[in-house]
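Lab notes, practical 5.
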Amino acid sequence: MPASSCSHRVPLVNASSGASSRAGIRASSRAGIRLALGVAALLFLAGCASTTAPVVYGPGGSAAKADRVRGDTEECRRLAESAVGVNGQAPQKIAVGSARRGASQFVDQAVESLVEGSRNAWQKARGAGAGAMAGSAVAVALNWNEPDAVYREYVDLCMKDRGHKVLGWR
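Output from the prediction step:
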């Protein structure tokens, strides 16, 4: 079969370039592994994001009272989540903020590198933009499930209606 009838081309590797080709494959595999581990760590941290809960004042607490407080807290949290949501940050708002930070860091680094006469200004700028966006993504992943002030106030009022005094959140 003639080489021109192939739908894709397979590069020929001579003896001198084979070693560097294998090294490039190993380097890209390591980068892929690092990326996969980073994403897995980010997902793990995001799953553990919200640990805050209301601290309820209760002198002389018995087991029955503790069970009542726990049940009321769960019910108030469920009501608050259905009424106002846990966190009012819309995904679009988060994405826009992340893109703005990335773009501003890109421009800042590009101008700084060009003024300094750096030969790799665009590489530095791309790195700064990507770093800013990655930092924003980590912040979002860690805080997406944290209750906002409206949610907390809703739970506080619900608990007060049920006869409990909320001291704060931890």
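Observations recorded by the TA: Residues 1-18 have pLDDT under 50 and may be disordered. Residues 18-47 form the longest helix (30 residues).
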